[in-house]
Amino acid sequence: MTMTDDPTDQAGAEVPGPGRRSLLTLLPMQGHTRGKRSAVTCHLKCADACSHPAPNLSTNGYFRDVVNSAFSRRALLAGAGAGAAAVVIGGAAGGAAAPAAAAPSGPGKLPFVPIAPVPNTVDDVVVPNGYSWKTIIRWGDPLFSTADTFDPSNQTAELQARQFGYNCDYLDVIAEPNGTRGVLVANHEYTNENIMFPPAADEDEANTQRRVALASHGMTVADVTRSGKGTPWTYVVGGPRNRRVTPETVFAFTGPAAGDVLLQTVEDPTGTRVRGTFNNCAGGTTPWGTVLSGEENFNQYFKAAGTPEQQRYGIGGSGDFRGWANVDPRYDGVANPGYANEPNRFGWIVEIDPEDPTSMPVKHTALGRFKHEGANVHVGRDGHVVAYMGDDERFDYLYKFVSKHTMRPGNSAKARAFNKTLLSEGDLFVARFDGDSSAAEITGDGTLPSDGEFDGSGVWIPLVVDGESTVPGMTTAEVLVHTRLAGDAVGATKMDRPEDVEPNPVTGRVYIACTNNTNRGIGDYPKADEANPRTRNRYGHVIELTEAGGDVTATTFGWSILIVAGDPATDPTTYFAGFPPAKVSPISCPDNVAFDADGTLWISTDGQPGTIGLCDGLFKVPLTGAERGHVQQFLSVPREAETCGPVIHDRDGSVFVAVQHPGEDGDWSDQHSFFPDYVAPGTLSGGKWGGPRPSVIQVVRD
Questions:
Q1: 606 in Cβ contact with 515 (< 8 Å)
Q2: Closest by Cα among 165, 301, 267 to 221
């Protein structure tokens, strides 16, 4: 989840008192943003990506117009279907009216009346009437001992490494068959030091805060328990599977690039081990029970020489505004040339085993290196597994990996050990999208072409096959370490920030959240095309993709745009798979997607405050029948927060989300959110704190 392309101009860093200073003060996006999205988020999450030119300056053809494609969406997807609401705000009724046609949502185990749109001034979680929410775990909650108490004024790196980290993103709650025990896994994407700590008095205190912030990144595994199905989960302090993965945790590289000179440093001359993971965004749980996590905006942590290969990833000499090089030389490859390759060791898909806290996690080089939003695995009919991945940058690409070997059935120790190797060998592809309408019909203003849909066919272009590069002039290791350059070379389609990419577990169709791209069609940037049909795309869209013949190993696919997002009350360019726009909940900047047991799509957003002036939220979207495309809002998160990691356990009557960066625009002395504890500002009592704490919450039916 990178920041929205239209964040806002209202935030600024605190002006500390005499002799004290905030760690993070520069805001390049200040004054260049709109709406109510924070320039702080731009700075901290992706290092002000929108204040720089898009890194993809390649001249590869970004769109090929193909009329009457043999793999059109209509051929491949034949048979696919085309009042006021009461809301609960922290347990109390209130709020504005929902869409006029709002009605109980069904079928399924989570019927609800869509909530009314929530302005981005509400500092609370809003859920439908008949539901309530509960916090499971918060930033700073102890994992191993109740003695590791949270005190934001007196944090240490050692203590933070034993507590739940900051800015939770990807999330899963994996229940055991008995239904009363399970394990929670969450990512921790980035930190906002200015609301986490008081201004530092001197450089020593500033370095202490940097070490705490560093330890706040990574991942958490925590045992959870409950009294029975449908009841709230509680995390277990000292649970046997509890684990913190931080930027100091040792990972092993797997796959063809492991050991290559491009991964070698003075600290690791073998190129096979690396300390840590950070800026972990989305992810996925594999069929064999491990968890995948994507390293996304890793570029912001490093100072580097700024070679062409590094510049393609936004890496240069101006990196490390967080000052991590002050506490570890590996983050400055200019002053410490022995670490020149350190940035190459990040930007991967990592895999951890939540069942074994002693196991060494891995980074899979076979899946390529780019700004991974995440990876999600689907098993094909013949047992091969495929991982779908988006590169979350303006004008970057969609990828898939197909395993060399097939998955072994069962959950025996032997089968599970083998399946944990499936992502180490296989073929890597990048997508080209072709439309079936003439270029003249794609006007950039959202007008549908004459066939009534934005749709067409596509090709998976091979980058690595049987362990060998298929890209002229690039070795296998170069393709995998500099994957963006490989995609440039073969003419992949430049997309509008493809973020979460997930296969539907019921139908196998793949859903791609393209969050936004306000550079589309501006100046020398690529113009609108059928797969990215709006100029200056502020609101994003969702693509539905079907592999040819339903085969995950296919090299061709059909596709159509399911949703062209926005507020239909003010934007006539919106489209909802043919469903009447006046009857949907407004939605903008789709980010993560998830599915319930029936295969219904759920979408979380990141950017509504800056585009349509509403809190971000979670939305249900049926995919078949008369309700296909009927977007219905289920919840919203507090002011200045982002909705992350949705998990839909509809058979249990539960929904989970990670609430990331609440109160992002505040500072230590002027907090903008008091979620989730809602105690007096600055108060610390009984583990509760008068300031924002990124948290995992559960919504249950009353």
A1: yes
A2: 165
Query: Model pTM?
Result: 0.89
Q: What angle do CA 599, 602, 605 make, to 5 degrees?
A: 160
For residue 35, give every residue at least 6 positions away whose Cβ sits within 8 Å of its Cβ, in sequence order, or none: 6, 7, 8, 609, 610, 611, 613
Given a contact cutoff of 8 angstroms between Cβ atoms, the answer to whether 241 and 183 are in contact is yes
Task: Establish whether the linkage from the previous residue to 638 is cis, with ω within 30° of 0.
Answer: no
Q: How many CB atoms lie within 10 A of CB 684?
A: 17
C-alpha to C-alpha distance for 633 and 649, rounded to whole angstroms = 17
User: H or E segment at 398?
Assistant: strand 398-406
* 3-state secondary structure labels for all residues of 648-693: EEHHHCEEEEEEECCCCCCECCECCCCCCCCCCCCCEECCEECCCC
Distance of CA 85 to the CA centre of its chain: 30
Helix (H, G, I), strand (E, B) or coil at 327: coil
Long-range contact pairs involving 78-85 (C-beta distance under 8 Å, separation at least 24): 80/623, 80/624, 80/628, 81/623, 81/624, 81/625, 81/626, 81/627, 81/628, 82/577, 82/578, 82/628, 82/629, 83/113, 84/116, 85/113, 85/114, 85/115, 85/116, 85/128, 85/129
pLDDT at 489: 98
Q: Which pLDDT score is estimated for 51?
A: 60
The pLDDT, as a whole number, for residue 64 is 29
Which residue, 348, 368, 251, 369, is CA-closest to 295? 348
The amino acid at residue 646 is P
Half-sphere exposure of 551 (CA within 13 A, CB side): 8
Reported as type and span, the H/E element at residue 234 is strand 234-235
- H or E element, residue 479: helix 476-481
The answer to whether the CB of 538 falls within 8 A of the CB of 590 is no
Residue in the block written with tokens 């102890």: 142
- Give me 181's structure tokens: 């025990």
Q: Hey, is 185 helix, strand or coil?
A: strand
| Structure-token match 């009447």, residue found | 580
Q: Which residues of the chain fall below pLDDT 50? A: 2-18, 35-36, 62-103, 107
- The token pair at 374 is 């995440």
DSSP state of 314: T
